[in-house]
Amino acid sequence: MHVPKRVAIVGAGPSGLVAAKTLLHSHSVPAFDVTVLEKSLSVGGLWSVSTAGPDGLVSPEMPANLSRYSVCFSDFAWESADLETGKCKSQTDSAAKPLEESSFMPMFPKARQVEKYLQAYAHRYLPNGVVRLNSTVTKAERRKDNGLWNLEWTTHNGSVHRDTFDYLVVATGFFSSPRRSNIAGLGKFPQNVIHSSQYRTFDDLVPPKAQSSEIFEKPASSDPSQDQTIPKLVVIGGGMSGVEAAASLALHISSRKHSPGSSEVSRDYQIHHVISRPFYALPPILPRDPGRAMQPSFTPLDMCMYNLSRRPSGDITYATGTLTAEKAKMTHEFLRNVIGGDQYGFGTRSRIFSSAKEDEPAYVAISEWYAGLVRAGYISPVAGKAIQVGEDAAGGTGTVKVEYKGKESILDRVEGIILATGFTPQTAISWLSPEVLAALQHDSHCERMPLLLQHRSTSHPDFPNLGFVGYYEGPYWGGMEMQARFLCRKWGSNADAVADSVEDLKPMEDLRIAIKGSPMVPQFWMGDYVGLMESFAREMDIPRLELDGYEPRGGPVIGARYIDDTADRQEANKTIQSLQRTLLSSASQAGFLSRAVFRAMHGKWHMSRELNSALPTHPSGNFTGTAKFHARFPTDPAYDMEMLYHEEGELVTNQGWTLRANRSYVYRYSERDDKITAWFVKPDDPKTVDYLFHAINFEVPVSSDTGALGELKAWKARSHHLCEKDDYTPEYTFNFDGVGLSRFGIKYYVKGPQKDYTSMTWFTR
């Protein structure tokens, strides 16, 4: 009689769920009896935000860094998840509507949506009783007599449970809990100190009473970075979480200043972001083919970065370990082409790699707004390492001491600190017995590689019945699924399929030594996602699905392109079809262009306008001044991003008159429509939207023979607006340099009973 092998999986985040699904569904005759032990109240792990509340590790509104095509598993499409209930839509519901009519899903799902996707995935694939919530594993020991695993766990009522399993999967996640900081003086800092994972709103860092203008009767500064009397908020840490925290904090401040109801006399703050190394700040939408074109097409970041066609011909192999200087230089060159230069135009050298450092690995961070908020003066990057905090001599506020190249500087008037010190993987394995940890060569001082594991961080030669899924820096969902498949084949009837791929631990030992001392270890030492997927697929004989319109071995790598015989091909096809529509939109329909333009308009511009009137009643002349696009939270939930536009300057007419003038609009972006709209503001309240002015409709140049985008030097857009009796026809011109705009122009043709003029305005940095 066949008896399935018992498997314990610790953790019900993405890695634990995909491991459970893979083990349960990979054989026609059940080979494994799976139990998933999860300490929290719901599945989702890091993404479990609805039940975690303020104690969760991420904000429910935090978007994923990668698109929904990467943040999903191969055979469960986002279209099949009910994001209201967290359940799988019925097959009848899925088949009733064409895929094009599915409910709207953002390209970069928010944490609360990822949580619902994972709940729906568990609902679809895991039978009741497989996942045991409120079960905190406290001990795992390997028996010496038969090698089985004895596990102990407690539940919410304090009861202790024990059981024995044939196999054990560690799926507790690499970023399991906030990393503690050893900066001197933190305990004596007189104001709030929080970890970046705790930040949700401005009130979390600065109490509402401290924000009151009644205690700070000073007009808001036009350039906070130049005013040394403005109180400071300090973000310590230059990794992904530090950039997210600084950008989120700055966006809150910008929104407080430029939203309806905000007072002109409001308390101002300057954010100082302490970073130990330079980095490239990338937005989530990038040019499809980076090359400094003035009219690029755009695509989600992962569709650009993880493209098979960027790899040399031949088998694509997984690369790990240190980088060569040549490879590092190539990466820097690629990233400079992506962003349009070396970031010097953003007004700070702290984020610029020197020529001497271009032989070393590049670091990146992903944020929609960070670079623009630096340019706008809300964020001041500070190169160095925070070594001590204290209290100002006057009391009430604090100081942060920063060391850089042997010199020390002081940030004073500090009223709050966000510690973006990252997360530790150590607590995720603390329940393994000391004997097991010792055999795994555990190093409590090496946060980047606490264990030595082989075969792409899945196993160890001393423990054939112990597996790891997702326990490495920056795990990709497709990579986690491949790891689960590898363990399933290793432990199941297909063991021979992976027998030849056993690796020695020596390369990992060498890499750990390099992590501790060499500057040539990349930002994510397992970051070769393309190589990871291709190598796993080749070893397990999993074919890659090719994409329509691409050469063989082309297009972006996503999990749905690598499915085995046990996968639900209908689900994979849903994701593939959606991906191909997205790629077509990007390549030939100006998809994502509006989002790229909207973000790139943010900040301060120099403007020059030429007015030419055919009627003597309307002045002709030249206007010069400044224009600012201020980011703020949307004032209408139908829109995803919003900016308050304000221009002011001087008009010199052809008759020699000089007039001061100013004007405000509101610009909005809707992802559902992929469209930018401009709105009039109320005359008596220039921060409040009044009514629609016009939509910006991009013209898509099409080559008659290929259907691909043409070779124009700029993107063009048109619109139309009838304002009572006056007819406005705006024409836009946008010149790109990487992800940024080098300049853009707006030409208005205005005709009416009392008007007949053209207005040409150019905006330059």
Automatic annotation (TrEMBL):
PANTHER family, per the entry:
DIMETHYLANILINE MONOOXYGENASE
What Pfam family does this protein match (any one)? DUF6314
Q: Where is the DUF6314 domain?
A: 601-765
Q: What is this protein called?
A: Uncharacterized protein
The keyword Ubl conjugation is assigned to this record? no
Keyword list (alphabetical) reads: FAD, Flavoprotein, Oxidoreductase
**SUPFAM superfamilies from the entry?**
FAD/NAD(P)-binding domain
In the record, what terms sit under GO molecular function?
oxidoreductase activity
Q: Where is the FAD/NAD(P)-binding domain?
A: 6-250
Q: Give a yes or no for keyword Protease in this entry.
A: no
| InterPro entries the UniProt entry points to | DUF6314 (IPR045632), FAD/NAD-bd_sf (IPR036188), FAD/NAD-binding_dom (IPR023753), FMO-like (IPR050346)
Species this protein is from: Xylona heveae (strain CBS 132557 / TC161)
